[in-house]
User: Fold these one by one.
Assistant:
Number 1:
Amino acid sequence: MTRIYLSPPHLGTHERDLLIEALDSGWIAPLGPQLDAFEAEFAASIEADHAVGVVSGTAALHLALLVLGVGAGDDVLVPTMTFAATANAVTYVGARPCFIDSEPSSWNVDPELLDLELSERAARDALPKAAIIVDLYGQCADYNRIVPLFHKYGIPIIEDAAEALGAKYDDRPAGSFGAISIFSFNGNKIITTSGGGMLVSPNREWVERARYLATQARDPAPHYQHSQIGYNYRLSNLLAAVGRGQLLRLPERVEARRATNRFYRQALAGVSGIQFMPEIDGGRSTFWLTCILIDEQETGVTPDDIRQHLESLDIESRPVWKPMHLQPVFHGNPMREGAVAEDLFKRGLCLPSGSSLSEPDKERIVAELVALLSEQRTVSDRRIPGGTLPTAGSGTGKDR
Ligand SMILES: *Cc1c(COP(=O)(O)O)cnc(C)c1O
């Protein structure tokens, strides 16, 4: 049996053809027609007006912050429940990430806490320069509640849709809610160029500015002239060819991940002590990753017991993101609340969710989960009331 990965790259047939076409055309120089075409096709697929392809989602975040004029001494609101790249980019421009807790109903940033944060900051004349709103695990944040909060103060939102390409909210695609929005084509994301990213915006000037900064900030002159600090952040023409091939299959990839999520929900419906990451009203998640919460008291196991057990069977699973306010590198950064994200981290587990996951593999994962959890339950049923579990199963029987 081969190893089951969490979210491996899923290649089709078009990538190879397009890549060969790019190689044969001689456009090995970083920029070229494949990149132009990828940007145009990508923008069209998510109804974005303008797009620029870059080397990573992180680079796209960095450029978004630069374009919006975020700099030294500024504060930027960031959900604590995210991947580190979201917060790291804020520090690249000398600004400070200020973290906000999640809401249990979507796991995304809590709009009520954002409201509170903004009104308190307005009162002491310390409004943030921008906010990055993350679409976690393929699910858009609750923008109908979030956008008006920032609109009121004229503060721009950067939508970090790195995990949410193909998602919808209120019938609009992920990536259409930010003043600037970004995507990632890292190997584990819903489509991949092995490494890459995209910045999109309805504002042409901002996208042109990002393109300029990403191309070493060259002034329009025949010689090499620079009046600003630039970056070497453009996606290469070869990788853009791979991206075009991947993009052709996007709707199927989203469907496959949603089907996997449905499969897990149905197959584990009878197992008490497991909850799934909720899908919010009006939202259509891609379920980039299917995430569950484990009730240790009910199941007799911790998420890490499950992870280690699956690992012993060559099945990869992962804890949910460790909240940013718990990261040593952000120790001391401002934080609003935090108990919800801490609880998600403590109880959460991401299950194998790749779009290439086969039916037999899905069956195998679920069979192993059900076997483990029913075995634990049999043990805990025999448990003396009030007593602790006598077995060696790690982390079992702990009282909270
Ligand atoms: C993957 C990811 C990024 C970074 O994208 P890269 O292409 O890996 O740089 C940023 N934010 C979130 C939420 C991500 O999941």
Note: The chain has a mean pLDDT of 93.
Number 2:
Amino acid sequence: MRVTGMIRYVALFITLLGTWFIVQTYFDHRWKAISLRSWLGVTNKPRSEQLPRHKCGNQKSCPQNHFAFKIISGAANVVGPSICFDDMALMSSVKNNIGRGLNIALVNGTSGQLLKADTFDMYSGDISRLDTFLQEIRHGTIVLTASYDDAATKMNDKVRAYFMELGSSHVSKLGFRDNWVFLGAKGLKNKSPFEEHIKNDKNTNKYDGWPEQLEMEGCAPRKMD
Ligand SMILES: *[C@@H]1O[C@H](CO)[C@@H](O)[C@H](O)[C@H]1NC(C)=O
């Protein structure tokens, strides 16, 4: 009786030992790694790895052969606009290359390289400078535009026609202190899908005298046509 009992205990002990050994070998390592860290709230991954940062700080990453972009219009006559393309801040208050009116960056649609960035006063400025700037845009160039304060007072039909040629659908309706963000390209066969326009309307304006700021982000195909 006692011997049988002893054997049972020994057998049980060996079984438990074996189970512990198997569990230890196969699971313990991983289990410990997961549970201990989550209990302690400790992670050894840097923050940037947990929340992937996309180009231009966008919500989504872009497929191959696309350029990430983000265009933000000005807010009233206080906060300047910004233009990001392929993770490069092309125009911004920090870069000190923006101004009231229209802010336009030209990018090579194949290489993504910045060609020109300029700002045009549309309230009291010289419209012929903008006319020349738009006229000289070469085929395959991506054009990024952001309004600030007023982008329409000096706008004329010739300049509107240039923007329409770049794929704009809204430029014809652009009025005093409207906000407008637009990405187009020279040589587009269709209208650009990348355009937002908000009217200056005292019933809907967010600010006293100006509509709310526009922010548009997306993925522009390389060599748009
Ligand atoms: C754009 O870049 C491509 C490739 O680098 C080059 O061949 C082309 O001439 C450039 N076009 C313009 C308009 O700069």
Note: The chain has two domains: 1-51, 55-221.
